[in-house]
Design a protein that fits this description.
The chain is an alpha+beta fold. The protein has nine helices and ten strands. The strands form five sheets. A two-stranded antiparallel ribbon has the order 1-2. A two-stranded antiparallel ribbon has the order 3-4. A two-stranded antiparallel sheet has the order 5-6. It starts with 10 loop residues before the first strand and ends with a helix.
């Protein structure tokens, strides 16, 4: 479940130049590293500088990071066309729903991408499949921080099993694109967020009034829950900006590469 991905949030970078300016903090940190291995052994890369001489504070080391991302970026598990699901699709009813027998009763949790198939918790599935912008946004930010430490040489398969290798900044950009796809029109002019509500898909007075839903269908991106959740779904604006910047950067990179080749010829 999303619980297995949340440890990725516990990451921060320390710039070596910045650290030298805070002598008291650096002295206390060095003391903990030297004297309290019981507290620091599970914190990755406290002493080994990474890309740009940065230090990494994380409870997830490189090996663990690869393992978590292998599941997170698997399209048969967490990786939807519209972001990261709250529960792995492997737990769908026709595959491996989680079952627990207790006190003579069988309890069951299964992947449900939209509303619940029971009245439990008010009849919504919340954390049993849909896509939530706040946690997806935190995952994007965490991957960007890991990339700032690990650099371009640290690559993972994205999506898992595709054979396509990406650095973590590229993975973050891919997640951002999939999230943005929820509110953008596709080639047929269809916005996934509006689902099957034709008034919001085609009516000239409504089709450009995009609702910021509470969460989104794990398989088709349709808006679910409260439809005025601007408090967190407005984060899509930040992701759209980042996606534009990422595309602009790569466009300029390709242009400069072509120019350099032309000059060389």
């Amino acid at each position: 479940s999303m619980v297995g991905l949340i440890p990725l949030f516990a990451v921060e970078l320390l710039d070596s130049n910045w650290l030298d300016k805070f002598e008291g903090f650096k002295r206390r940190m060095d003391w903990f590293l030297e004297n309290r291995s019981d507290l620091t052994d599970n914190i990755a890369a406290m002493e080994k500088p990474g890309h740009g001489e940065r230090l990494l504070l994380s409870i997830c080391n490189g090996r663990q990071l690869r393992s978590v991302l292998e599941y997170m970026l698997n399209e048969s598990e967490f990786f939807s066309d519209y972001g990261i699901r709250a529960l792995s699709k492997v737990h769908s009813a026709d595959r491996h729903p989680y079952e627990l027998e207790f006190d003579g009763h069988l309890f069951r949790v299964e992947y449900q991408p939209a509303e619940s198939n029971s009245g439990l918790f008010g009849g919504n599935s919340n954390w049993r499949g849909p896509i939530w912008f706040p946690l997806n946004f935190l995952l994007v930010e965490s991957l960007q921080k890991f990339h700032h430490y690990l650099g371009d040489s640290f690559k993972v398969e994205c999506p898992t099993g595709s054979g396509k290798m990406m650095n973590l900044n590229e993975v973050a950009a891919e997640i951002s694109r999939r999230l943005s796809r929820i509110v953008l029109r596709d080639a047929n002019g269809h916005r996934p967020v509006a689902g099957g509500i034709q008034q919001f898909q085609t009516d000239p007075h409504w089709k450009d009034l995009v609702l910021f839903h509470e969460y989104f269908h794990g398989d088709n991106g349709a808006g679910i829950g409260a439809n005025h959740q601007t408090g967190w779904t407005a984060l899509v604006a930040k992701l759209l900006i980042q996606s534009g910047e990422h595309q602009h950067h790569h466009k300029n990179h390709r242009k400069n590469h072509v120019n350099a080749v032309a000059v060389g010829d």
